[in-house]
């Protein structure tokens, strides 16, 4: 009888633990991505995710989280409330390599007038990369837009610097992956849920 009672308690503990564990939506090349996450007090859903390739090398997994599923760039850029891009590194990169890729994506996908309005924020963003010698395989960088707060950058859960106030700045970063000249065309499709990346 005592054994039976203990077994029931143990089963209850396992069930309770299961209820609080993350629900994985995708496994991309061994990188597990959560189906939902809380940003700015709002539950966001995984919109789409894929791998950023450079030549034949896997650089990182990128995932886009929104309040509601969107499949076009204008819809994503106009999406209300918090948003998040999660990057999970799949290889070691120097800050120069990573920063150059980011700034190149910004240059190619944003017009001169927009960029000139946010010069000080881009300079500060470049300095942020300089403060991190390198990104290692398994590191997680997150870029979050939180209304009334701004764009927040986190590395392995730790906030990096102060928020960037303009929504236009967050959208400028989003265009690195979703712009007319994205860093990886197949990744753009995956983040917009245009192709299935399950089990990659």
TrEMBL record:
GO terms for molecular function: isomerase activity. Keywords: Isomerase, Signal. SUPFAM superfamilies: Chalcone isomerase. Residues 1-25 form the signal peptide. The keyword Isomerase applies. Residues 26-192 form the Chalcone isomerase domain. Pfam families: Chalcone_3. This is Chalcone isomerase family protein. The lineage of its organism: Bacteria, Pseudomonadati, Pseudomonadota, Betaproteobacteria, Burkholderiales.
């Amino acid at each position: 009888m005592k054994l039976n009672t203990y077994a029931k308690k143990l089963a209850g503990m396992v069930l309770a633990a299961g209820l609080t564990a993350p629900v994985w939506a995708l496994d991309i090349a061994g990188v597990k991505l959560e189906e939902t996450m809380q940003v700015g007090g709002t539950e966001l859903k995984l919109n789409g995710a894929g791998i950023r390739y450079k030549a034949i090398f896997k650089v990182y997994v990128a995932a886009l989280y929104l309040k509601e599923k969107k499949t076009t760039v204008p819809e994503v850029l106009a999406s209300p409330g918090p948003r998040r891009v999660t990057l999970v590194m799949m290889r070691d990169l120097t800050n120069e390599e990573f920063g150059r890729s980011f700034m190149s994506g910004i240059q190619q996908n944003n017009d001169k007038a927009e960029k000139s309005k946010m010069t000080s924020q881009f300079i500060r963003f470049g300095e942020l990369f300089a403060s991190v010698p390198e990104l290692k395989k398994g590191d997680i960088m997150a870029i979050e837009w939180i209304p009334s707060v701004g764009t927040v950058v986190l590395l392995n859960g730790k906030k990096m610097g102060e928020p960037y106030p303009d929504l236009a700045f967050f959208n400028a970063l989003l265009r690195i992956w979703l712009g007319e000249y994205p860093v990886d065309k197949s990744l753009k499709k995956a983040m917009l849920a245009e192709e299935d990346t399950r089990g990659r």
